[in-house]
Specification:
- The complex is a heterodimer of chains A (936) and B (173).
- Chain A is α+β, with helices and mostly antiparallel strands.
- The two termini of chain A are 59 Å apart.
- Chain B has helices spanning 4-26, 33-47, 75-92, 96-136, 140-170; strands at 51-54, 58-61, 66-69.
- Chain B is mainly α.
- In chain B, strand 1 (51-54) and strand 2 form a beta hairpin.
- Chain B starts with a helix and ends with a helix.
- Helices cover 74% and strands 7% of the residues of chain B.
- The chains are: A alpha+beta (936), B mainly alpha (173).
- Strand 26 of chain A pairs parallel with strand 3 (66-69) of chain B.
């Protein structure tokens, strides 16, 4: 322990944590400082200044000692202890002013209150160990039992204090009394820990005779083996609750069996005898060094709880287990030092140090590699589901994915349940940072992955009553003007919304409307408290996360975003009974258009200015209706593309599927000549029907869920890129279409087959139903299938050998002429210009038809959307109430943009977990006893 | 207090709780639908919200953003209530038949109470949780836990003293 006197320790425990704490708190302060009062801001600044002074004093003292080649003194330990305790004490005393109620809790990270305790505790622990060493070393007559007894006296005195003196206490003033009480408590804790650690230090350093060597195990086994295992069992509730849930613990979720295995191995490494065989001793030193991070980890986890240990001992005898990590750390360090001293006489000190460093890294590196493996597995699963390269063959290990999803659930930081910790302290944060980029995989996405890869059931059907909120669009006004510099119409739409139902609770207005082709949203506003607030353009996921959080606290947000295809959603919250609110947005469009909102159709723009021309930007081409009318009209030939449900448990249905397909082929032979067939389970296999597809069907593995979404997207993408004079007519063959894994709809793919957005579903032997790709895929649209009524389309040449087919609907169209790998270098259009919007449309369509490139395109599109000030499918307009919400949005947006874009900004589902049974039982007994006593 | 000849029944009640706890540790939401179904149905009725049943997971209320699953089934409450009611029933039972009948009756009442307490707890949480978060400035986990504890204790203590009053009234001198 003499090494503790080296001033370099001060840099590690006294300077580095202070810097980290300062940076962390500064980051938080930057988000919510606009919500603080002048008094709170003054306090924050004072605390920051004192923190800087503490860190600077530590740094100056450490540098001074290093230069002068001196050791850390007792006086420093005493002064630092007083100063840091005073700081922590004062911080918690003012906590309500530092984090006042005006800051919404969702703006703060989970453990923000414990930052100060966590980061300043290492200095206190260091000072304590230093004092123990300085005041013990060299005193040969110091007795371990005297120290243990003195330590025990502290809880005993406290007990007496609570029982005898406190009830008779007549304080001068309540504030003075409270301060005195707290100071006494802190002193008690310090004395208790000092004597405890001192006793242990004496015990460890006692010279045992060879004959009595075995007696060491008498204290080693409890401290290193029994207490840690007992503590883990107690924490996870195994001992008390017996057989309850093992997913949470009082101090953290240590339910993984790895903690028990490591605790056992650590205990064995600590308890093994120190023999003088050099090879054995080296192996022992390496083993103890490997396990040292484990001991250190639990020491750091329990550090903030140490002051509670005495209370825990008084209330519950088992509270002494809370002291195990500190005791184990002292033992472990001493053993390592003893081993090192022995080994340097046998080997070169440099090789021993190297071995120690390598050994220290074993556990952290193993953990990191395991997390990185989870990251790789998760990313490949997400890539397969959401941004696949259709030309690649995917095979994802299901066992590995299953354990990854389990780990993600274990480390999730949302899901408020009970007071028990569901996370693993520090490690969950590390996991979320390394694997999930500080974002989250929402329960619905985990559910989707489980559905796809393990064939687990998905969301069921809706049931129950939906609240009957009613709104009326009481006024809609528009203004349009042609901007010749931007070359487009600028139209403003102002809405007045009135809530007309008589339900009590506040309601939210939601409406969706379709934007015509070539029409985009360039501004949004909402009237909040009589003032028209301008919408800010934000990344869509971050905006939706902020919106849902603001809605939770019932403030005044409004949001506008693309749902799918050209459908835009407008959400305004809240509306009390009969309330009238005003909102509006701005549109840019090339030609006059009409939009329909809540059944009201408004015309925007008047007669065309000039002769409409085809316009090209960012690989997209805008074709006005007039240009389209001059294109060649033709009828393409449809062919069947059968999608067969080859998911888990469908093998025995093969014969029925084949019979149904044979019947359709017989009924419509003209559609069968070029037909294709896809077997769809987790993965999709596609074959021409001319091959021996029936044999191949029997060879399918029939695993996972019926991932229809993936196969539909692949078929539509191929159809778009092939652009031949034939097109696929999709027929889904399954016995349970409700179990098909689908997205909301395929509206973004509508241009792939301009003739029709319908596909057929055969669920039984008798008939098939017609469904729409543009609507809810699972719901039939009530149309009748007639291959003769398929309309003609228009052919537009985009190159020497390539043409794009367009619907002959008398409306303008936007097509993707050329796939884009990034924002074109020449796309420097002015802000809010129509050309910039067309460029974004080209990028978005490139993302839709080349999902494998979407990861790279997505952040570019988000940034280009910000630059141009026009909403795209990856951004949204949001009105927030204050600067703090804007800062929180900015922070979330930065996190989202830096991470995998398939991850989520936050959890959308909240569990309604009930309180722990033991807690309820205890409180019930206490309450009944108290009531009975009181009523006597 | 419970006399010795009644202790055996109390141990049986505790044995039942331990056995059920073992089963509970291995159960998923599907196995607890006897509790989850009525709770979700009544919560849906009172909040006017549609719910989706996700097999193996529970009822998801889209508009409320909550999921009622195994952890919200009210099973823990039911076990505490069962022990409390068995204790009370045995304390005031006079004949062997009464003692034998106490346990199934306690179980039935505990089930009904669990549904009632579960609905009250979730309904209160849905209605109050987010407001209290903003108002008190504490995390939703703590607010949720506190609401749960308060509701459970009110139901349990209320039941206990009601039964005490009723039993004492009917006790033969």
């Amino acid at each position: 322990m003499r090494n503790l006197l080296n001033p370099r320790w001060l840099l590690i425990v006294g300077v580095l944590p202070v810097i980290l704490l300062f940076l962390l708190l500064r980051g938080e302060y930057a988000v919510f400082h606009s919500l603080l009062t002048a008094e709170s801001i003054h306090l924050w600044k004072s605390f920051a200044l004192v923190l800087i002074l503490l860190g600077a004093a530590n740094l100056a003292y450490a540098v001074f000692l290093i230069v002068k080649r001196k050791e850390v003194s007792v006086l420093y330990a005493l002064l630092a202890m007083v100063a840091f305790i005073a700081y922590i004490y004062s911080y918690f005393y003012h906590i309500d002013k530092l984090f006042p109620f005006s800051i919404p809790r969702w703006m703060l990270p989970d453990r923000v209150y414990t930052y100060v305790g966590t980061f300043l505790m290492p200095t206190l622990a260091y000072c304590m160990l230093l004092l123990v060493y300085r005041l013990t070393s060299g005193r040969k007559n110091a007795k371990a039992w005297v120290n243990f007894l003195t330590a025990l006296l502290v809880p005993l005195l406290w007990y007496l204090l609570f029982q005898g003196i406190i009830p008779l206490w007549k304080p001068v003033s309540s504030r003075f009394g409270m301060h005195l009480f707290l100071v006494l408590m802190i002193m008690g804790v310090l004395l208790f820990l000092f004597f405890l650690v001192r006793g242990l230090y004496i015990l460890i350093n006692r010279k045992w005779s060879k004959k009595n060597e075995g007696y060491r195990l008498l204290w080693k086994i409890p401290v290193a083996l029994v207490f840690p295992l007992l503590g883990l069992l107690l924490n996870s509730g195994v001992i008390i609750d017996g057989v309850g849930e093992k997913s949470a613990g009082v101090f953290g979720n240590f339910s993984s069996y790895w903690f028990y295995v490591l605790a056992l191995l650590n205990g064995i490494a600590v308890c093994l005898p120190e023999l003088s065989n050099r090879t054995y001793r080296l192996a022992l030193f390496v083993a103890r060094s490997i396990m040292f991070p484990f001991t250190l980890y639990f020491f750091l986890v329990f550090l903030p709880y140490l002051p509670l240990s005495i209370v825990a001992i008084i209330l519950l005898g088992l509270g002494f287990l809370m002291l195990t990590p500190i005791l184990l750390l002292v033992v472990h360090i001493n053993l390592l030092v003893a081993d090192y001293r022995f080994l340097v006489s046998e080997f070169s000190p440099r090789s021993i140090r190297l071995a120690a460093v390598a050994a220290y890294l074993v556990l952290p590196l193993a953990l990191t590699f395991s997390y990185l493996h989870d990251r790789v597995v998760l990313n490949s699963a997400l890539e397969y589901c959401y941004s696949p390269d259709y030309s690649r063959s995917y095979r994802i290990g299901t066992a590995s994915l299953e354990s990854t999803l389990e780990a993600i659930r274990r480390n999730k930081n949302a899901t408020p349940g009970n007071l028990m910790q569901k996370q693993i302290p520090f490690l969950s944060r590390y996991y979320n940072w390394l694997v999930l980029d500080n974002l989250m995989l929402s329960e619905s996405k985990i559910c989707r992955l489980e559905q796809v890869f393990f064939g687990k059931p998905g969301w069921g059907k809706s049931s129950g009553n939906i609240p009957d909120w009613k709104f009326e669009l009481t006024d809609i006004s528009t203004t349009s003007s042609y901007d010749s510099t931007r070359g487009c119409w600028i139209s403003r739409v102002e809405l007045e919304l009135t809530r007309i139902d008589s339900l009590t609770w506040v309601a939210g207005y939601t409406s969706s409307f379709d934007l015509p082709q070539g029409c985009w949203i360039s501004d949004y506003n909402l009237v909040v408290n009589g003032k028209r607030e301008k919408g800010i353009l934000a990344e869509k996921k971050s905006a939706l996360w902020i919106f849902s959080n603001i809605v939770s606290t019932r403030r005044d947000p409004g949001i506008l975003f693309y749902r799918s295809g050209n459908r835009v959603v407008l959400d305004v919250f809240p509306f009390s009974k009969g309330e009238v609110r005003k909102t509006g947005f701005e549109l840019i469009h090339k030609e006059p258009v009409a939009i329909t909102i809540d059944g009201h159709t408004v015309a925007l723009g008047s007669a065309n200015i000039g002769d409409p021309q085809a316009v090209e930007a960012g690989g997209a081409v805008y074709l006005p209706a007039k240009v389209k009318s001059s294109l060649k009209r033709l009828k393409r030939k449809p062919y069947f593309h059968f999608i067969i449900d080859a998911s888990m448990g469908n093998r025995e249905r093969i014969d029925g599927y084949i019979a149904r397909i044979d019947r359709m082929v017989a009924d419509y032979p003209e559609l069968a000549s070029e037909a294709k067939v896809s077997f769809v389970g987790t993965y999709t296999t596609t074959l021409p029907m001319a091959t021996n597809w029936k044999d191949k069907l029997a060879e399918q593995p029939f695993t996972g869920g019926f991932f229809l979404d993936w196969s539909l997207r692949k078929i539509l993408t191929e159809a778009y890129y092939e652009q031949s004079e034939t097109f696929p007519l999709i027929v889904v063959i399954t016995d349970d279409f409700d179990e098909a894994i689908t997205g909301e709809n395929m509206a973004d793919y509508r241009m792939a087959i301009p003739e029709t957005d319908c596909f057929l579903v055969s669920q039984s032997d008798s008939a098939f139903t017609v469904h729409s790709l543009g609507e809810d895929l699972l719901r039939p649209v009530g149309k009748i299938f007639n291959p003769d009524s398929i309309p003609a389309v228009l052919k537009y040449s985009v190159g020497e050998n390539r043409a794009v087919y367009l619907p002959d609907d008398g409306k303008p169209s936007v097509i993707l002429k050329m796939h884009q790998d990034g924002i074109p270098a020449d796309a420097n259009f002015p802000r809010k210009s129509w050309m910039a919007a067309l460029t974004m449309q080209g990028i978005w369509q490139s993302m839709v038809f080349h999902p494998d490139k979407a990861d790279a395109l997505w952040p570019e599109l988000v940034r280009y959307s910000f630059r141009s000030g026009i909403m795209s499918p990856v951004t949204s307009f949001l009105v927030v109430e204050n600067e703090a919400q804007k800062a929180a949005l900015k922070r979330k947006q930065e996190q989202v943009l830096a991470g995998n874009h398939h991850l989520d900004a936050g959890e959308e589902i909240m569990q309604m977990s009930e309180p722990d049974s033991l807690l309820i039982a205890l409180l019930l007994i206490m309450a009944i006893v108290a009531i009975k006593r009181f009523s006597r | 207090m419970v006399k010795r000849n009644k202790l055996i029944y109390l141990f049986i009640a505790l044995g039942i709780v331990v056995a059920f706890k073992f089963g509970y540790a291995r159960a998923n939401s599907d196995s607890l639908r006897i509790l989850i179904n009525p709770i979700s149905g009544i919560v849906g009725f009172f909040t006017g919200s549609a719910s989706y049943y996700i097999p193996g997971k529970g009822y998801f209320f889209n508009t409320l953003g909550v999921i009622i699953d195994k952890s919200c089934s009210g099973f823990n409450f039911m076990m505490v209530a069962f022990v409390m009611l068995s204790f009370q029933g045995l304390k005031y039972s006079r004949t062997r038949t009464e003692r034998i009948l106490t346990l199934p009756l306690a179980f039935l009442i505990a089930y009904l109470l669990a549904v009632f307490a579960g609905v009250s707890r979730i309904f209160s949480s849905v209605m109050l949780q987010k407001r209290l978060n903003g108002l008190l400035g504490i995390s939703s986990a703590v607010v949720h836990e506190v609401i749960g504890i308060v509701v459970y204790l009110i139901v349990l203590i209320g039941t206990y003293f009601l039964l005490e009053k009723y039993s004492k009234k009917n006790e033969k001198p």
